[in-house]
Structure prediction request, 211 residues.
Amino acid sequence: MLYTLQLGPLATNCYIMANEENQCVIIDAGGSFKKLKEFLDEKNLSCTDLILTHGHYDHIGAASAVKRAYPDCRVYINSDDSIIYDNYVKGQGLPAYLKKQDYEAFAPTDDLKNKDSLNVAGFEFKIIHTPGHTPGGVTLVCQRFMFTGDTLFKGSMGRVDLLGGSEEEIMKSLKRLYEYEGDYAVLPGHEGASTLSEERETNPYMKLAIK
Prediction:
């Protein structure tokens, strides 16, 4: 079962994949932990794993709270993004609505940097390394779903003007997704869903990437 919540001031999409034993994997816990916890309690779900597509605050903001509520939860992120989330501890790069003293640092338990797949809570996630929006951005593929973080959006792509962003790298990443075999529901980090076939046909940035 897949659930979607919008969390935090930037309405980041948080995805929750639950198995029949009421265990769940959370993808991107960007904030509003109270709302997230209330939803999990309502559905009688327990989080075993938290996978972060990249290190921007609006995707990791509730990570420490999730880990505190579920101490055995594994927290996965590509360590190439430590350049971003380590700066938050110093008060650098935080969004305007947050102060240094309000930021609660989190400690990842597992590095996605050299992983191509992940088996958690009975789900197999394929890991596609898609830098460009951030150095360590990843896209996750599980069943018929493709969780693209802030790399690929419906009709658009992620920003490259923030710390660690690279237009050259995100173009390579979009090309990698274009060439990924099969069709999937594209579930981005913000706004609405799409399909990979639709983005191949209509997304101007993806078309530019394959030239």
